[in-house]
Each structure stands twice: as C-alpha cells, then as structure tokens.
Amino acid sequence: MASLVYLKNCFNLSDEDLCARWSENVLWQFFSGLDYYEHRLPCDPTQIGRFRRALGEDGLEQLLKATIDTAVAIKAVKPAELERVIVDTTVQEKAIAHPVDSRLREIARHKGISAARRAGIQLKQTFAKEGKELRRRAGGYAHAKQFRRLKKVVKPQRTTLGIVIREVRRKLEAPAFAALDAKVLSDLTMWLERAERIRIQQTKDKNKLYALHAPRWSASTRCKARKPYEFGGKAAIVVSHKASLMMGARTFPGNP
Question: Residue 147 CA to chain centroid, in angstroms?
C-alpha cells in the first residue's frame, strides 16, 4: 500500500486510474515488491484514500523520506544531485461528477433523508417520487439546451430540498428527540449544513460546493476548449533536477 501512495504522489493520478494502470504496468508491480506479473487490481481504490488518512501528514513525510534515503543507499541518485530541484504546480483532480445544480440538489435531498432515518427521524414528506421526476426532466432540458424550462425545474427542486431540511431541523430541536449515537447526530448535522449550502448557492457565487463528499475542492480554469475547468485542488511537487526523484509534495485548499 505504501508503494501505491508513492506512485500516486509521483504521477498525480486518481485512485481509480492508479489501480487500473498498476494492473497493466510491469515496472510498477516490480516496484511494489512482486516477483511475477499479475493482471489484477492491487486493492479497492477506496482503500488508498483510507490508508493515506490513517498515515496522516507526518506519516506521509516519513514515507517520502524513506524513499529518498533508499534511493541514495542503493546509489540510484547521488547526494549532490539533490541540491538542485524543480518545483512545479498542477491540479490534483478529484473523482467527482460534473457539478450540475439539479443533480447536486437531488443528491443533497437523498443524503439528508438517509441521515435522518439513521438518527431515528421519520419525515412526513420525502419527495422521492417528485425528486426522481424532476431530475429526469432537468436532464432532458439540459441536453436539449432549453434553459428556461430547466430553470422552472430547478426551482421546485430547491423548494422541496428546503422543506426537507426545515422539517429535519424542527424534529432535531424537539424536546422529545433523543439521538441514538453521537456520530449519527454529527453526520446528520454535517449533511444538513452541506445541503443548505447546495440549496442557497447561485451560479456565479464564490466558494461553491461542487460535491457533497468533497467540500474542500474547488474549480480551476484550464483555458482549453475541450475541458474548460478542472475540479480538485492545487498541488505543488518538488523533484530532483537530473533523476526526477520525488522529494516533496503539498496540496493547497481553495484556489490560490
């Protein structure tokens, strides 16, 4: 798993792309310690993110230091070559769908209702049938570029989402409510806050929420016709000048 984290930092890939390329790359598998080529995924892509969170920032720095010390020990790079480095920035893309307003509001409604049920809250209205129909109509109007009709669909989505949020909050503040678990209550509060951000944000607002599961990521302008924007975070990478050995990496939240 540590070798996968190192490869991810070196090649700036998403977890899904990293696992797919690892299953096809003989050199990467040899770097990971395998003696024979195996055409399989190394692990589930979600395990890489959990492993990185478990290591923390200090653990990742120790892992990077160990790779540099190993490269010097096996004479793959000379210590004098580490005195001159190249620093560059790029965008680390997040594995999120394109942030469409109608889709985000439907997901926010579904997440809020699911979190409320886990907390033992029974809602009077969930708008499950209406939400599914509105999402289908919004997708058709957006594909046909009928934006006036699209606005008439997005507005009731905002209204139904607001009704669900207000009902959940009323029942949370009721004296008779008793949460079963502190974590369940914390998750419900988190989803409600993010759903409220999705509900009130407008097209030209700053610091928008582009994905409910990744609130820290932002949009970066790429200035290319085929892909005008990238959704992720800025990352700075330091490599040695001659051997291109990875020596440091850091992400910057927001869009500096």
Answer: 28
Beta bridge mates, 92: 233
Distance CA 80, CA 202 (A): 53
The residue count for the chain: 256
Can you tell me the distance from the alpha carbon of 123 to that of 30, in angstroms, rounded to the nearest whole number? 54
Average pLDDT over residues 20-39: 90
Calpha distance 217→92 (Å, rounded): 10
Predicted pLDDT of residue 92: 78
- Rounded to whole angstroms, the Cα distance separating 87 from 241 reads 9
Q: In a 3-state reduction of DSSP, which class is residue 142?
A: helix
Calpha distance 193→209 (Å, rounded): 11
Mean predicted lDDT score pLDDT of the chain: 86
Q: Which amino acid is at 123?
A: L
| Gap between the Cα atoms of 256 and 253, Å rounded | 8
CB atoms within 10 A of CB 209: 21
Which of 9-23, 31-45, 124-138 shows the lowest mean pLDDT across its residues?
9-23
pLDDT in tens, 191-227: 999 999 999 988 778 888 888 887 877 777 776 777 7
How many secondary structure helices (H) and strands (E) does the chain include?
8, 4
Task: Report the distance separating Cα 184 and Cα 189, nearest Å.
Answer: 9
First-residue to last-residue Cα distance in the chain: 31
For residue 180, what pLDDT band results from cuts at 50, 70 and 90? low
